[in-house]
Amino acid sequence: MSALSESDWQLFIDHLSSQIKGIEEAEPERAQAMRSLMHSYLEGWQRKKRRELSCN
Q1: Contact in structure between 12 and 48 (CB atoms under 8 Å)
Q2: Using 50, 70 and 90 to split pLDDT, how confident is the model at 2?
Q3: What positions does the domain Death occupy (predicted)?
Q4: Is 56 helix (H, G, I), strand (E, B) or coil?
């Protein structure tokens, strides 16, 4: 599996954000859980990128 580029991540985040906005009014708890998960994945990706840059 290849690593996602920064632009791939941005597309992914944009897509998830629009999905979350679509359910936010009807299911606020679910929307918050999805937002939290999205941020966790993004933070993990950012940590990985920092590690890669520090090793080079």
Answers
A1: no
A2: low
A3: 1-56
A4: coil
Supply the Cα-derived Rg of the chain in whole angstroms.
14
pLDDT digits (tens, 9 = 90+) for 3-25: 778 888 889 888 988 999 999 99
Q: How far is CA 45 from the centre of its chain?
A: 8
DSSP-derived 3-state class of residue 3: coil
For residue 6 the two structure tokens come to 């920064």
Which residues, at least 6 apart from 35, have a Cβ–Cβ distance to it below 8 Å? 20
Distances (CA, A) of 43 to 24, 32, 39, 40, 50: 22, 16, 6, 5, 11
